[in-house]
Amino acid sequence: MRASERVYHALREEIVTWHLPPGAELSEVEQAARWGVSRTPLREALGRLSAEGLAVVGKGRTLVVSALSAEDVRHLFELREALETQAARLAARRGDVATFRALAARFAAAPDLLGPADPERLAYYALVAELDAAVDDAAASPYLRRSLTALRAHVARVRRLAQDNPDRLRRAADEHRLIAEAVADHDEVLAAQATAVHLRASLAHVLSTLDGPPGTPSAGPSATTPGTRRATRPAAPPVTQPATPLDTPGDRP
Amino acid sequence: MRASERVYHALREEIVTWHLPPGAELSEVEQAARWGVSRTPLREALGRLSAEGLAVVGKGRTLVVSALSAEDVRHLFELREALETQAARLAARRGDVATFRALAARFAAAPDLLGPADPERLAYYALVAELDAAVDDAAASPYLRRSLTALRAHVARVRRLAQDNPDRLRRAADEHRLIAEAVADHDEVLAAQATAVHLRASLAHVLSTLDGPPGTPSAGPSATTPGTRRATRPAAPPVTQPATPLDTPGDRP
DNA sequence: GCGGGCCGACTTGTATACAAACGCTGCCGT
DNA sequence: ACGGCAGCGTTTGTATACAAGTCGGCCCGC
After folding, report:
1. CA atom of A42 to C1′ atom of C15, Å
2. What is the pLDDT of residues B29-40, one digit of tens each?
3. Cα–Cα separations (whole angstroms), residue B76 to A145, B79, B139
4. Residue B213 pLDDT
5. What is the pLDDT of residues A17-40, one digit of tens each?
6. Min CA distance, B176 vs chain A (Å)?
7. Which of B51, B52, B144 shows the shortest C-beta gap to A78?
8. Where is B134: in which H helix or E strand?
9. Interface-testing mutation among B1, B94, B143, B193, with chain A (most A C-beta atoms within 10 A)
10. What confidence tier does A58 reach under pLDDT thresholds 50, 70, 90?
11. Residue among B115, B96, B90 at smallest CA distance from B184
12. How distant is C1' of D19 from CA of A178, in Å?
């Protein structure tokens, strides 16, 4: 694979997973040395990240990882609603019934995925990714797909920002099931509206984990216990900390 | 200004204006020589064009100007509908009444701009651009704005592809007026729907100038005369011709 | 005669060297 | 003591040199 592409995917992954938090400086020489490539392919990678909005120019000419405030999340969901409702509408128009009926069934069984095992919910999120991919394919709209692909990186970053509790995930699974059912029924209006419903609920959940730092009520870990939030993650109260760049990965010196 | 940015804007303009038609090869060395810069900034420019979808990889690793078939136009408008209806909705929610009332009035008077003078309709299209900018500002949604900005290049390219007759432009002006009125009224639903109406009408017009090469009926140049279509433009029947790269611009040897 | 493989030229991908611009620090003047 | 300015250092922007891969054509063998 080309060096520029390899570095692009690696940096993108680090940004999405918050290993490179907002505000982290993306110095060309430093990153080039870190990934064992020259500045030329690295610049290309940074250019793509910048075009995607994952990196922005800082104070000087320095490129930094873009911020992600609560306001940014709101604005991001405004775009997301536009794109995903349209994708759902087109998928409902053109999609294959069996595909989405099967996905709906798997979402109906999704609570089985949310047991104590798999604390990262990898199986659940893989299922969500499958639905996204199926919608993209069914929509069959290249320009829309391109925009959605760029959007997904930001969405994934938000996912890591917010705390997902099992209760929310169960509700989300049902929202996804409704979307899949509507698409399978070729019901364009319902598919779009079900998508909008899901996005609004998702946004409300994300914002609730951001605005209420002490511990707003709602639901606990598994039962209705008003337990504490924000357990495993490195905690991001102001969301935009200056950020430490982290040391080199597993490359040779 | 930076060389890479200058070349990027120049190439983008050439692509949008069909001076570089679909299929035209964007050889690095050739274009670098043509614009009097090195390959490094030129590669950055090509990277941005590629990220925008204005350039795609051809058969080898050669980059060519992206095609724009009737099917592409349909797909483009699927994205456009998603983005612009949302922008209109948000603008209606947040926009300033006076601004859009004034724009509506100017669109009401738009037929005055469509006289025999100004055959390129620069004044009219400038007004449309003003409305677009006002909607973008009022929507105040950075992620959405970014996507819209990228989209506009493709839309501008389509505009040059289609033949705009005064009759269609008068109708379009009224559609724009309705959008501006709805935004001024803070009517989100109507603003989005008026935008959708305009886009569907616009798409239908564009496709009518593509699918019916001989001369479908509808309306003539100014009256109801069933005149001939396709007058001034270089004529693009298969839309995707191999394209001649055109000679160098006004740069020193 | 036709197919496969080799060779060559041209393209892009990468590395490095050079230049310019910006920020920062320290000093000097008021 | 504070503000401004100048010099320096570090950063990005650009150019060029080198490497690698690929496409096309040609030749040879079957």
Report:
1. 12
2. 999 999 999 999
3. 11, 5, 21
4. 57
5. 999 999 999 999 999 999 999 999
6. 20
7. B144
8. helix B122-139
9. B143
10. confident
11. B96
12. 55
